[in-house]
Amino acid sequence: MKVVKFGGTSLASGKQIQKVLSIVISDPKRKIVVVSAPGKRFADDTKVTDLLIACARKKLRGEDATDWLEAVVERFASIAMDLEMSNDIVKEIRADLEERLRGYKGDPERFLDHMKAAGEDNNAKLIAAYFQERGIEARYVSPKEAGLIVTDEPGNARVLPESYKRLYSLREQSGIIIFPGFFGFSKNGDVVTFSRGGSDITGSILANGVKAELYENFTDVDAVYAVNPTFVSHPTEIQELTYREMRELSYAGFSVFHDEALIPAFRAGIPVNIKNTNNPSAPGTKIVNERETKNGPVVGIASDEGFCSIYIQKYLMNKEIGFGRKLLQILEDFGLSYEHIPSGIDDVTVILRENQLNQELEQAILHQIKEKLDADEVKIQHRLALIMLVGEGMRRNIGTTARAASALAKAGVNIEMVNQGSSEVSMMFAVKEEVERRAVQALYEEFFVSVPV
Amino acid sequence: MKVVKFGGTSLASGKQIQKVLSIVISDPKRKIVVVSAPGKRFADDTKVTDLLIACARKKLRGEDATDWLEAVVERFASIAMDLEMSNDIVKEIRADLEERLRGYKGDPERFLDHMKAAGEDNNAKLIAAYFQERGIEARYVSPKEAGLIVTDEPGNARVLPESYKRLYSLREQSGIIIFPGFFGFSKNGDVVTFSRGGSDITGSILANGVKAELYENFTDVDAVYAVNPTFVSHPTEIQELTYREMRELSYAGFSVFHDEALIPAFRAGIPVNIKNTNNPSAPGTKIVNERETKNGPVVGIASDEGFCSIYIQKYLMNKEIGFGRKLLQILEDFGLSYEHIPSGIDDVTVILRENQLNQELEQAILHQIKEKLDADEVKIQHRLALIMLVGEGMRRNIGTTARAASALAKAGVNIEMVNQGSSEVSMMFAVKEEVERRAVQALYEEFFVSVPV
Predict the structure, then answer these.
(1) Does residue A35 fall inside a structural domain?
(2) Which end of chain A is more exposed for a tag (fewer CB within 10 A), N or C?
(3) Is A439 in contact with A414 (CB distance < 8 Å)?
């Protein structure tokens, strides 16, 4: 049995939903279909979920939200028309939306969650109806009926462990199950949504619950690329990567989806296949527990900018037990999270995301560090980029560091920082933002183009 | 004016003290001479300070310590005889030692300090007398007379800031001052010693106090070597290095002396010249505030073994604010100091000196980390060596990392860890202990032998 999830662009129009239908029926193992709300049809389009949020906010302000409600109905109506479906489904959706809009507003977050969930919920109903009209045995199953119980944290729900056992009984149902993504129900029976992109989470939970042999995640790209395609044109597609590699690659903001969504599938050891709705015959990228490392030490390169480093120097720092802990306490008191803290004998550097700071906060932090830790010198460097080289077994491959550092040197890139050896599957370089592109290109050239290893 | 300090081996015999005299009088700027206690004359010899400690401990146990006292007197008598001095000085030393031995024993640490200081103190008196007998204007000055006031921490005294002003008046004295190293006086007038090797500290304090143009530190090697001579025969001698470089080199236990002793001279910007008593015409190694970097990026390579790494893995670790701080708190609670903490997205590694642990403690720490931090995996790797590449401006030299990593790869050395970017003047590699020698040799070959840069 396979769990198949389709993202917003795969369901944005009738034409796309026709593709979805043929994909699902082309493999009898595709029994559980998790759907998102209709996404963008073109670059400037608005996602149905965003229309619903605008609608809910307007209503919460006490204003008339009919315009937004009509916009949502219009999107579904257009899909139904494309699919030559009867108007009944549109009426049903309108009625559902109007009822939600009349709902209790005393708890705004809960009201918002209720409205947001309408995109996936109604899309699932529409798609189930469409499958039925095409003579396919299919039915809509709600998370409530299936027993997908979550914590009562609106907008940030987490699945409760007892759900898995209940979801297992979905295996016994005949026909295809169309399941709305993005939300579950609290123990009290309230709709609670996952964090944004939460349909991936639903698919992953269901794959775990029914112990699927595969979780297929259909999106709008053929595969996960080995490098950001805005830096390198037509980069290598990754055929297979491990969960750990996926996670490291997503570290620097380079991800086709929510990597944390994978946790439930990961825990159950279920492989994930990222595929393209618009090119379903492409093999896509498979995310697995273990893989053979036959294509050299590096599987992918990720990078992101917007980091800064705070350098702290104090003579005899390394003799001072508790110095590092006190430094981290200061960061924690300011609510800051950090990426790395490379340290030397008399100095330590903290790398963190720049967007956590503004000028005032920055001054306050530098001042506190200087005062509380009695530091000799504290200085900040802005506009750094972090580059991650990721690959299983990289650590055991003598010479990977040398190849990477030499490639950067040849490209005239100065390495501000190297962090290697914590993770067994990655190596981090910090460079100035202005050379990020050049650095990534040089590393790609070294590990994916020049010499096959 | 120069402050000149002679170490124990430079003063171990009459013959050595004759060399000291010629060195001092060969430069009229050498006005202040700081002396250690007589050290070893040959490999199996015992230092006078160690004889004094044995003597004091025996006395404190309530036993007769005459044998040890005689051994100390004997060392001084042998020096006096070598120098053809009258027996008066030996009588004076014996009387001093007997008086110290009769001293108050209610505070054993203070008694011990009093005894330990006798080596330097009597040696200074002997040397002053010898200089006088040779017709040189010289006199013994005690730390009390000079105003070298320290904190009342027996065996670990720190200079009090007011001392510097008092010491400045030593400039006004005519002739050569012979000053005992290793101890000062508390505000109450008690003898208090510095930590072991403390004559270097005395010299450094005096250099600061009198605002010397140079602090000459005479020892028994021609220079600081660029690499451990047990790994590479006849290594390059370092002509000049900065305080920062010296400090980084001494990090991994590779040091001709107490690098912390330099702090007072360092604060006053006074250069230090490490020279050889047995080869005073050799230029030695100069430690300065700034230097021209004309000989390539690397000035020296230090290494030490006996490290271990604790690897901690936890899914979503980087989302958990406070994780790092809690980890460091656990280490602090166990009284452990760490060297480095490289971190990844879901993992962090702590590098620390292995000699802080035993099997029981190790199990307790691993257990606490697993429990308190709810880690998915905790494991320890033993027998690591750290190698430091040190050099000013290394960071701005594109390609240093590449050269180092390539040299290690060519030597078949797997890099377990790289830490670069905290300090601007060093780069750290961790390797398995069994390849330390090979790794150091490869790096030395790359930066000091093969290609001049």
Answers:
(1) yes
(2) C
(3) no
Q: Would the annotation count B307 as a binding residue? A: no
- Is the pLDDT confidence value at B432 over 70? yes
Would the CB atoms of A421 and B329 count as touching at under 8 Å? no
pLDDT at B55 over 90: yes
B309, B349, B423, B435: best mutation site toward chain A, by most A Cβ within 10 Å? B423
Determine, yes or no, domain membership for B238: no
Same domain (yes/no): B184, B332: no
Would A285 be classed as within a structural domain?
no
Q: Is B6 annotated as a binding residue?
A: yes
Prediction ipTM score:
0.74
Measured CA to CA in angstroms, residue A25 lies from A219, B16, B94 at distances of 18, 96, 105
Region of residue A412 (phi > 0: left; psi between -120 and 50: alpha; otherwise: beta): left
Closest residue in A to B333 (Cα) is A322
- Nearest to A284, CA basis, from A225, A222, A218, A214: A222
Indicate the average pLDDT of chain B: 92
| Residue from B185, B51, B37 nearest B122 by CA | B37
The domain that contains A39 carries what CATH number? 3.40.1160.10
**Known binder of ligand: residue B393?**
no
Residue A245 in contact with partner chain B when CB distance is under 8 A: no
Taking CB atoms and an 8 Å cut-off, how many pairs form between chains A and B? 179
- Predicted pLDDT of residue A117: 97
Q: How far is B32 from chain A (nearest CA, A)?
A: 28
Residue A345 contacts B, CB cutoff 8 Å? yes
Query: Do B215 and B355 lie in a common domain?
Result: no
What confidence tens digit (pLDDT) does each residue in B354-378 have?
999 999 999 999 999 999 999 989 9
Mean pLDDT of B320-345: 87
Alpha-carbon gap, residue B323 to B373, rounded angstroms: 7
Low-confidence spans in chain A with pLDDT less than 50: 452-453
3-class secondary structure per residue, B46-72: CCHHHHHHHHHHHHHCCCCCHHHHHHH
C-alpha span between A133 and A136 (Å, rounded): 7
Quote the tokens at residue B327: 């980890």
DSSP characters over B295-362: S-S--EEEEEEEEEEEEEE-TTGGG-TTHHHHHHHHHHHTT--EEE--B-SSEEEEEEEGGG--HHHH
The alpha carbon of A83 is separated from its chain's Cα centroid by a whole number of angstroms, namely 30
| Interchain pair B417, A414: CB under 8 A | no
Considering only CB atoms, which chain B residues are within 8 Å of A416?
A: 395, 421
CATH number of the domain that residue A422 is part of:
3.30.2130.10
Report the residue from A349, A413, A415 with minimal CB separation from B422: A349
**What is the per-residue pLDDT across A251-297, written as a single tens digit (0 to 9) for each?**
766 555 567 788 899 889 999 999 999 999 999 999 998 888 776 78
A371 annotated among ligand-binding-site residues: no
pLDDT tens-digit readout, A122-154: 999 999 999 999 999 999 999 999 999 999 999
Residues of B in contact with A345 (CB under 8 A): 247-248, 251, 423, 426
Residues A216, A328, single domain; the answer is no
**Least CB-CB distance to A415: which of B346, B416, B420?**
B420
Whether B399 has its CB under 8 Å from any CB of chain A: the answer is: yes
Q: Is residue B202 located within the same domain as residue B333?
A: no
Question: Are both A349 and A202 inside the same structural domain?
Answer: no
* B331 → chain A, closest CA residue: A322
Domain boundary pick from B190, B220, B250 = B220
In-domain check, residue A231: no
Q: According to the model, what pLDDT value does residue A257 have?
A: 59
As for how many domains chain B has, the answer is 2
- The answer to whether A393 faces chain B, any CB pair under 8 Å, is no
Among residues A220, A238, A262, the one where a domain terminates is A220
Co-location of A79 and A212 in the same domain: yes
Q: Which residue has the higher pLDDT, A342 or B119?
A: B119
State how far the Cα of B259 lies from the Cα of B243, in Å rounded to an integer. 9
Same domain for B216 and B307, yes or no, is no
Residues B7 and B150 in one domain: yes
Q: Chain B partners of A409 at a C-beta cutoff of 8 Å?
A: 398-399, 401-402
Query: Containing domain of residue A338, as a range?
Result: 300-450
